Amino acid sequence: MGRFNYRLVAHIVGMMLIYLAGAMALPLSVSLLCHDGAQFALTFSALFTLMIGLLLRNFGGRGAAFEFHESEAAWITMAVWIAIPLCGTLPYLLTGAASSFTDAAFESFSGFTTTGSSVMELPEELPEGLLVYRAFTQWIGGLGLILFVVAILRKLGIGAGILYESEFSGTQQRKLHPRLARSVQRMWGTYIWLTAVLLTLLILTGMRPADALCTAFSTVSTGGFVTHSSGLSQLSNGSLMVVTAFMLLSGINLSVLFRLFTLRWRKIGPCEELVWYLGLFAAAAAVCCAAFLKSGNRLADSVLYSLFHIASTMSTCGFYLPQLPHWPLPVSAITFVLIIIGASAGSTGGGIKLRRIIILLRYTRNYFTRMVHPQAVVRVKVDNRIVPEVYVNKVFAFVFLYIAGIAIGAFALTLCGCTIPDAVCMASANISNLGPSPLLNNLGGALDYALLPEVAKWLLTLLMLAGRIELFALISIFSPAYWRQTT
Question: Is the pLDDT at 304 greater than 60, yes or no?
Answer without folding.
Answer: yes
